[in-house]
Amino acid sequence: MINRKLYEIERMSEGMISDSAWNFLSVVGVSTDTRTLQPGNLFIPIVRTQNGHRFVEEAFRKGAVASLWSRHEPDPPHQVPLIFVDDPLSALHRLASRYRQELNIKVVGVTGSNGKTTTKDMIASVLSRCRRVCKTEGNLNNHYGLPLTLLQMEEGTEIAVVEMGMSGAGEIKQLARIARPDVAVITMIGEAHLASLGSRKAIASAKLEILSGLAPNGTLLFNGDEPLLEEVLAEIAPPDTIRKLRFGLGPANDYSPADIRIDSQRTEFKVCGRSDDRYAVPLPGKHYACNALAAIAVADGFEIPDADIQEGLASVHPSGMRMEVKRSVTGLTVIDDAFNASPSSVKAAIEVLSDMQGFANKTIVLGDMLELGPEEKEMHRAIGRLLSPETIDFVYTYGELAAYIAEEARIRFGTQRALSFQDKPSLAAHLLADSSPDKVVLVKGSRGAGMEEIVQQLLADSDLQDS
Question: What pLDDT shows up at residue 336?
Fold first, then answer.
């Protein structure tokens, strides 16, 4: 993590130390939260739901060596090391950007509507076989999380793999200019953020803002199955010095899969135009083969040996609530995919469950999909029409919007096999009436729906075993 004298922090953040007597204090790491602050940290008082300046004195009591302080905030504490800045969040961005520039590292930036966290985890797992890698933990991918990730890098880091999320236009541009990626990856364009951006093309444009920070001779890896990316790229006309590579399920891509085999535990595939070697990731679904292709392409750019690529993919540990296969002591199989949902990711989950073999009862539990804009009801109905009673046995929904999924599904499933609930305990109790070993339950919904609570209830009072 960052280890600098306070006068260097002053310069990097474009601030002013309250007293030059503090110039040579050593800062080791930064924190924006007194609950996790470590002695020696620089405290950065961000103004969010609460004004972080209220916690500066607590930060010093817990061992902070210094703190930023906004010039616009009254009553700064006395007799403690402060750096006065225009805005602590902007100062955090400058500090992270300059620290990144001072280190001799390469940066891989990953964005996309779905799959960016899993792709980031795959890339980091593969590169870590041969290089010293720092990656975004969990999904700390916003204008707080990304700079904090960069400031966590050790001096000896060779490659940083950072995730870039957004809630609106302009945010990816800001993150890209902080991280200055050498490789930019765009996983896909989905429907999330339609409420704020209005169209999928606008989402594609927002994701391609990553080019604003890409190194002049950098590499852009993008999903070649998405024509909107090609369309927006043609309008942007990035410099010819940027190398563009496509990955995806279609055979026209630079990286595409062949002979995909999927079971409840993993996805195995070959890569077209490569040797007959097979690659495997411990997640079920064709879309995970697509994510893995992006990781393979990144690894090729860093000249990672093929054996290390295979081992890195096979040993990846994805972040939680992403197609996690779990079993209770009763034998019930639960697939926890509750981290988030959009129409495209729900369709992928339906495909995974439909293709699973070895289960007499395949049940899907779907929650509300959020941030879809004025067409949200029709998008939920479309999911209901997509479900087939020939490949899935039961449909359960939770939430007001997801009720439209059940309403459409009942046309083909009937009233006894497509059920809608507005409270989670009742839904879970209904599912638990049959928790036999030959039953699998896939749970998915937007983050705001809290579908992980249903997973917890399905596995409550049992000795949970990750499969």
Answer: 92
Burial zone of 300 (CB within 10 Å; 0-12 exposed, 13-18 middle, 19+ buried): middle
Q: CA 287, CA 259: separation in Å to the nearest integer?
A: 14
Instruction: Give the burial class of 28: count Cβ atoms within 10 A of its Cβ; 0-12 exposed, 13-18 middle, 19 or more buried.
Output: middle
Residues whose CB falls within 8 Å of the CB of residue 185, separated by 6 or more in sequence, listed in order: 108, 109, 110, 111, 112, 116, 119, 123, 221, 222, 294, 298
Distance of CA 1 to the CA centre of its chain: 22
Q: Which residue in 238, 247, 233, 169 sits closest to 203, CA to CA? A: 169
How far is Cα of residue 32 from the mean position of the Cα atoms in its chain?
21
Fold annotation for 324-466: Protein-Tyrosine Phosphatase; Chain A (3.90.190)
Nearest to 364 by CA among 292, 425, 439: 439
CB-based burial of residue 358 (10 Å sphere; 0-12 exposed, 13-18 middle, 19+ buried)? exposed
Cα atoms found within 13 Å of the Cα of residue 433, Cβ hemisphere only: 7
Domain 103-314 coded CATH 3.30.70.1350: no
- What local confidence, expressed as pLDDT, does residue 463 receive? 42
Could you give the CA distance from residue 386 to residue 11 in angstroms, rounded to a whole number?
A: 57
pTM of the model: 0.85
What spatial distance separates the first Cα and last Cα of the chain, rounded to whole Å? 35
Classify burial at 39, counting beta carbons within 10 Å of its beta carbon; exposed 0-12, middle 13-18, buried 19 or more.
exposed
Sheet of 333-337, strand order: 418-421, 394-398, 361-367, 439-444, 333-337, 324-327, 465-466
HEC string of 365-388 equals EEECCCCCHHHHHHHHHHHHHHCC
Residues of the chain with pLDDT under 50: 462-467
- Give one word for 110, left, alpha or beta, with left for phi > 0 and alpha for psi -120 to 50: beta
Q: Count Cα atoms within 13 angstroms, Cβ side, for 16.
A: 5
Distance CA 166, CA 172 (A): 6
Q: Which amino acid is at 154?
A: E
Cβ atoms of residues 419 and 396 within 8 Å: yes
Q: Give residue 285's pLDDT.
A: 87
Per-residue pLDDT at 292: 97
Judge: domain 3-88, CATH 3.30.70.120.
Answer: no
Query: What are the residue boundaries of the structural domains of the chain, listed by start?
Result: 3-88, 103-314, 324-466
Cα distance between residue 113 and residue 119, in whole Å: 12
CA atoms 173, 178, 184, 187: torsion sign: negative
